[in-house]
Amino acid sequence: MHPHYPALNRDLKVVAAFERVSTHIDPEFQTDAQEKLALVCDEVFEGVRAKSGGNVIDYLITMRESHLDSGEKTAASSEVLYDTLLKLAAALHVDEVLTKAARVETGETKTAALNARALGREYAVTLMRNLLA
């Protein structure tokens, strides 16, 4: 098993729990729950990017293959894997574009770029979870 798999798997389970809570909570607290979900996803995303040395796709594929080599199973078929990797590659590219935009923009434009990036990172973390589930 890949040495980073247990920690990432734990983090992805935390994200899944936050997703459930943020959608099934009293509307009065829903905004707070969604903000916490965004923060957790951002931390997971940044952690994966840092540990991967910037090559997130290869890192996740290696982690998934190592997991499978250890005798564990995953839910994703090869067709689902390919589709998920394509979506994840697009999400990673969009994240780079939005990160650059947030560095050079100011005011409402910067805020919009950061908000869009947060949503994209939630999506990317969901895709990571699908790859390793």
Concise synopsis of the structure shown:
With 133 residues, this protein is mainly alpha-helical. The protein is built from five helices and no strands. The chain has helices at 5-23, 27-51, 56-69, 78-104, 107-132.
Helix and strand element order: HHHHH
Structural class: mainly alpha
Query: What share of the residues does DSSP label as strand, in percent?
Result: under 5%
Low-confidence stretches: none
Oligomer: single chain
The biggest sheet amounts to: none
Tally of separate domains: 1
Helix content: over 70%
How many distinct helices? 5
Mean model confidence by pLDDT: 88
Number of strands: 0
Radius of gyration: 16 Å
Shape field: globular
N- to C-terminal distance: 14 Å
Q: How would you describe what is shown here?
A:
This protein is mostly helical and 133 residues long. The chain has one domain. The chain contains 5 helices and no strands.
